[in-house]
Design brief:
The chain is mainly alpha-helical and 427 residues long. Helix content is 53%, strand content 5%. The chain contains 19 helices and five strands. The structure holds acetyl coenzyme *A. Acetyl coenzyme *A (ACO) binds next to loops.
């Protein structure tokens, strides 16, 4: 006979000896139940040990270095799937049939154009506007072009906005890139695949059709697959938090883009390139490593809040590097990166702290080889992450347990001061 007694946690309050019993469900106790019983709040800046939702989208085991989307290991998806198939999987929860796939690809392909006024809006930015600033504003602006998107409880309306956003993101991202270069915006080409079309809108000039090298197209697909979702990271939490007010999905996703804009989230690969440039030659590596161990430097692209093992995405990216460099020629910084990795993986400092390369250690090298300036790196992250954000947003909207996000605070300021009007204070 199996024991059906629910697992519980007993909390003893040593101030008065009272005891409280909390039910353990799915490895967690309810914070609100904890509060009701003990009268205490849980203090957790950065949600380091607070689950904010139940989610069936992405599974991560940081100790073992495992990442799965809807149960499928990332390695298998990166090897054999396409970004749009992965986006379907994230959004719908299961892989498409052949017919569903065809319809999905068709829908996405035929929603890549944006209203001409969006183009005018983007053209209004300063010549040197950061592409992420342009992307987050233009995605936010889409809510005004599709006011029906506010009807978030209508399944068909939701579906249309999801298709639009996944479809238009490469258009907006590519245009924000062209803008900084003073080059004309290139319209989408519906004859091309998702990744090919993005490359075309980025790099096409006067040729009739942009002809991307298939190895680069595949490398971009792989990078898109790897970045599609990563459970409750900062930007996904921003999408869920803003979405919990029941605002339209364009506004919620633009909040996610804003979060990704920050250097602690989307900017680490740029920091890796800066570090490699500073090290300059392999001979300087030992001195740099001494600085890291003394705490004067950080080995950028190493370590992760969740992964205490090899970030599975880093292994896949490392392989993609070879394919890209075969086309573009080797980035001279690669040699330094490889040597750094070799030394770090054998060094006691890194081994003891479980510091391994993360997804950003090699991605910047690929992006640079593909001719992207550093400001575009986060845009390249935001485009594929849109499917993950939207999958999480859909889950939020349908989740009866969700409420408007409203964390507690521990108030540390003054109380009950007496206000003296300005005329008296300044007299
Ligand atoms: N180089 C040197 N030492 C490091 C590094 C690093 N990259 N990362 C962590 N450590 C050390 C810390 O100094 C600390 O040592 P101590 O115990 O002697 O004080 C120990 O390892 C634990 O590190 P924390 O900072 O507590 O780990 P945390 O989980 O808070 O930080 C983070 C994770 C921010 C990713 C960190 O490893 C880091 O700064 N890495 C470099 C930046 C980077 O690559 N960020 C990209 C992350 S991936 C992404 O966001 C898509």
């Amino acid at each position: 006979m199996t024991d059906t007694t629910p697992a519980t946690l007993t909390v003893r309050d040593n101030r008065d000896g009272s005891e409280h019993e909390l039910t353990i469900t799915d490895g967690a106790v309810s914070a609100s139940e904890f509060g009701k019983q003990t009268g205490l709040a849980l203090y957790d800046p950065g949600f380091t040990n607070t689950a904010s939702c139940r989610s069936a989208v992405t599974y991560i085991d940081g100790e073992a270095g495992i990442l799965e989307y809807r149960g499928y290991p990332i390695e298998q998806l990166a090897e054999s799937s396409t970004y749009l198939e992965v986006a379907y999987l994230l959004i719908h929860g299961e892989l498409p049939t052949q017919q569903q796939h065809e319809e999905w690809v068709h829908e996405i392909t035929f929603h890549t154009y944006v209203h001409e006024n969006v183009k005018s809006l983007m053209q209004g930015f300063r010549y040197d506007a950061h592409p992420m600033g342009m992307l987050l504003s233009s995605v936010g602006a889409l809510s005004t072009f599709y006011p029906e998107s506010r009807d978030i409880h209508d399944e068909q309306v939701r579906h249309e906005q999801i298709v639009r956003m996944i479809a238009k993101m490469p258009t907006l991202g590519a245009w924000s890139f062209r803008h900084a270069q003073g080059k004309p915006y290139i319209y989408p080409d519906n004859e091309l695949s998702y990744a090919e079309n993005f490359l075309s809108m980025l790099f096409k000039m006067s040729e009739r059709q942009y002809d991307a090298d298939p190895r680069l197209v595949r490398a971009l697909e792989i990078l898109f697959i790897l970045h599609a979702d990563h459970e409750q990271n900062c930007s996904t939490n921003a999408v869920r938090s803003v979405g919990s007010s029941q605002v339209d999905p364009y506004s919620a996703v633009s909040a996610g883009i804003a979060a990704l804009y920050g250097p602690l989230h989307g900017g680490a690969n740029e920091a890796v390139l800066k570090m490699l440039r500073k090290i300059k030659t392999k001979d300087n590596i030992p001195a740099f490593m001494e600085g890291v161990k003394k705490g004067d430097e950080r080995l950028m692209g190493f370590g992760h809040r969740v992964y205490k093992n090899y970030d599975p995405r880093a292994t896949i990216i490392k392989k993609a590097c070879d394919d890209v460099f075969e086309v573009t020629g080797v980035n001279p910084l690669l040699e330094i990166a490889q040597e750094l990795e070799k030394i770090a993986l054998e060094d006691e400092y890194f081994v003891k702290r479980k510091l391994y390369p993360n997804v950003d250690f090699y991605s910047g090298l690929i992006y640079e080889a593909l001719q992207f300036p550093a400001e575009m790196f986060t845009v390249l992250f935001a485009i594929p992450r849109t499917s993950g954000w939207l999958a999480q947003w859909l889950e939020l909207v349908d989740d009866k347990e969700q409420k408007i996000a409203r964390p507690k605070q521990i108030y540390t300021g003054e109380r009950q001061l007496k206000f003296v009007p300005a005329a008296e204070r300044w007299a």
